[in-house]
Specification:
The protein has 224 residues and is mostly helical. It folds into 2 domains: 7-173; 178-224, no CATH class. Helix content is 69%, strand content 9%. It is built from 7 helices and 5 strands, in the order H-H-E-E-H-H-H-E-H-H-E-E. A 3-stranded antiparallel sheet has the order 3-5-4. The protein has a two-stranded antiparallel ribbon with strand order 1-2.
Length: 224
């Protein structure tokens, strides 16, 4: 049975994959982006316990204790999986929503670990110096205060995905019913849409655009 990776090995691999993801995004290699982002998401969960302890406890140096920085911010990979990959049709709405729920669960796990660690610190209060306790508790308070912001961000992302999915369905249905409809006419019919929505629908392969005068003629795509 293989031994679990050390924290430093996990962090090195996570950072390496972050570079790979950045390069794949620059190269517009969408499938490689999705594969790499998924690998990073798995690593983020695997490294979570030690990351939280490091971020909460801090590091002892010659000049005393300093608060540790959590190495894995858990944002880039889930940003791609829940937005860019969805816009490009590489993941469907249910999968994008599942990734939103996954990162919310990860942040909930962080909060749970921070709270458990905070309780442990309170129990050890008599055995450590007053100054050390102050630093540790302040770090816990800071992490706990960030929780509403994390939750709001990912709940907003879920709402945006649902709205975007509804728009894509509406565009696909309208174009299917009226093949060759001008983009300008479709936008007049659907006041809650803009040209960017039609652009993403064409990028996903849901419709086809052909230049016509100052606008575009929109056509359905077979099998979509």
């Amino acid at each position: 049975m293989s031994q679990p990776k050390s924290h430093s090995a996990l962090l090195d691999e996570y950072m390496r994959l972050g570079i790979v993801l950045h390069e794949a995004m620059r190269a517009h290699d969408a499938e490689d982006c999705v594969d790499t982002a998924r690998q990073m998401a798995v690593l983020a969960w695997e490294a979570l316990p030690s990351e939280i302890m490091r971020g909460t406890e801090g590091i002892k140096t010659e000049n005393g204790w300093v608060c540790g920085a959590v190495g894995m911010c858990v944002r880039q990979e889930y940003d791609y999986l829940t937005l860019d990959a969805f816009r490009r049709g590489l993941v469907d709405a249910d999968t994008a929503l599942r990734y939103c729920d996954e990162v919310i669960a990860l942040e909930e796990e962080k909060l749970s670990i921070v709270r458990s660690y905070r309780e442990m610190l309170l129990q050890q209060q008599r055995d450590i110096t007053e100054r050390m306790m102050e630093i540790k508790l302040r770090k816990c308070d800071d992490l706990e205060k960030d929780w509403p912001r994390f939750l709001e961000f990912w709940q907003d992302r879920k709402t945006a995905i649902r709205i975007f999915d509804e728009k894509m369905t509406q565009i696909r249905t309208t174009v299917g019913n009226i093949p060759g409809i001008l983009q300008s006419d479709l936008l007049r019919q659907c006041a809650d849409m803009d040209a960017a929505d039609i652009y993403w629908a064409s990028k996903r392969g849901s419709i086809r655009r052909e230049k016509k005068g100052r606008s575009y003629a929109l056509f359905p795509v077979d099998g979509k």
